[in-house]
């Protein structure tokens, strides 16, 4: 069963404030544990007399004040990338922290403040989102706020807004959303498109006239920390024509609704894998505007990440811990071999005599499960009922296994189309 929730703990502190402490700044100390991804602080004030107590709120870390909201808020959140307005996102360094109060007004009988601190820990888990979208910053009709709101409604965790040859979207991301914003730009040339993911400003000038210029743009993006994705490389209208030996990290095997162009890329990817290359496959909707077929998170890219941050998600992709489904509620498959999972390379000593374990959920009756290795399709299993299904396979002599799930979609006239796929789990030989 896929892990999608993070581990949490809660600490509660009380502080009685006397009338003599009015106008003083007071602290409620707490220890920040190791490995925290986000904190949520809330407080309540109980007055023991009249007039009603007014106690302001803020917080400090071990070095500085990290935020102040006075009497305007009763709670706040701080994470590595986002925080409640008035508070600074950033490192949640372990050690001594304190909730800071201003005892602005205290009755003669005093008051009691109860502070609740919830710690959400970095927990390896599956996160889902869309790695290829557009906005009004280029040729899309969605605002950044609309994109974020749609992804939030879909229950997704991240989005990359990859506008064509511009980076303005990376500096105007909405802050009041739970969706992680992955900086991106679609490097768009007359002979192919490539996403630069992970840095706000990967390229000073997108214009190119030849392969040498393309290599230079990619070099600069790489130097600045971007991950390079070849987008819809076998598209009928804008294929990648600069050659597949350009520097790149990942390939977009599934762009928008599944079609022949995606099948061509899927076949090319399988050939690369069979030849011994370990290349991570991702997906992206490439949505630009409201459309009956091209929609946010269709396909949906799932990433097993150590933290719900842009860096955590990109690191998970880099490890090949990626599953793609036709939408957020599509079927989901996990591959394991002992303690190793989808994307991992199982060392020869661990794979000797070991079996692949596959667990699939959110199936519907009639779904076709294909187990694929460098030899091609090795097993085809038709789901007789909906729900979940598990099976195992011998790993002897194989260099990888991956899974595809195919489904008859009524909304597409009953066509059998790809519903989900995993990246491979590899076996060292």
TrEMBL record:
Domain Polymerase/histidinol phosphatase N-terminal intervals: 129-191
InterPro entries, A to Z: PHP_domain (IPR052018), Pol/His_phosphatase_N (IPR003141), Pol/histidinol_Pase-like (IPR016195)
A molecular function GO annotation: 5'-3' RNA exonuclease activity
NCBIfam families per UniProt: CehA_McbA_metalo
Protein name: Phosphoesterase
Native source organism of the sequence: Paenibacillus thalictri
């Amino acid at each position: 069963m896929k892990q999608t929730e993070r581990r949490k703990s809660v600490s509660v502190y009380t502080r009685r404030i006397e009338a003599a402490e009015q106008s003083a700044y007071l602290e409620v100390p707490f220890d920040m544990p190791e490995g925290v991804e986000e904190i949520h602080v809330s407080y309540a004030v109980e007055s023991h007399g009249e007039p009603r107590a007014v106690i302001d709120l803020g917080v400090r870390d071990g070095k500085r004040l990290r935020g102040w909201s006075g009497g305007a808020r009763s709670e706040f959140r701080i994470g590595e990338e986002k925080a409640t307005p008035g508070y600074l996102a950033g490192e949640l360094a372990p050690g001594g922290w304190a909730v800071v109060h201003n005892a602005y007004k205290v009755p003669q009988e005093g008051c009691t403040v109860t502070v609740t601190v919830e710690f959400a820990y970095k927990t390896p888990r599956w996160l889902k989102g869309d790695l290829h979208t557009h906005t009004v910053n280029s040729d899309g009709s969605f605002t950044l706020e609309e994109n974020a709101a749609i992804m939030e409604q879909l229950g997704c965790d991240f989005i990359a807004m990859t506008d064509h040859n511009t980076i303005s979207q990376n500096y105007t991301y909405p802050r009041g959303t739970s969706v992680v914003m992955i900086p991106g730009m679609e490097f768009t040339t007359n002979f192919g498109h490539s996403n630069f993911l992970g840095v706000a400003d990967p390229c000073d000038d997108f214009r190119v006239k030849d392969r040498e210029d393309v290599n230079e743009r990619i070099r600069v993006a790489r130097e600045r920390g971007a991950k390079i994705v070849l987008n819809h490389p076998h598209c009928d209208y804008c294929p990648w024509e600069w050659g597949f030996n350009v520097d790149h990290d990942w390939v977009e095997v599934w762009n928008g609704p599944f079609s022949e162009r995606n099948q061509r890329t899927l076949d090319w990817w399988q050939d690369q894998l069979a030849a011994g290359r370990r290349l991570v496959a991702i997906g992206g909707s490439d949505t630009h505007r409201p459309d009956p077929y091209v929609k946010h998170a269709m396909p949906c890219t799932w990433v097993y990440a150590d933290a719900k941050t842009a860096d955590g998600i990109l690191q998970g992709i880099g490890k090949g811990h990626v599953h793609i489904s036709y939408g957020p509620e599509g079927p989901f498959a996990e591959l394991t071999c002992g303690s190793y999972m989808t994307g991992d390379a199982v060392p020869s000593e661990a794979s000797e005599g070991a079996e692949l374990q596959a667990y699939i959920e959110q199936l519907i009756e009639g779904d076709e499960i294909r187990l694929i290795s460098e030899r091609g399709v090795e097993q085809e299993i038709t789901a007789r009922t909906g729900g979940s299904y598990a099976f195992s396979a011998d790993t002897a002599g194989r260099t990888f296994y991956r899974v595809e799930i195919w489904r008859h979609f009524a909304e597409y006239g009953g066509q059998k189309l790809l519903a989900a796929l995993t990246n491979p789990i590899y076996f060292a030989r």
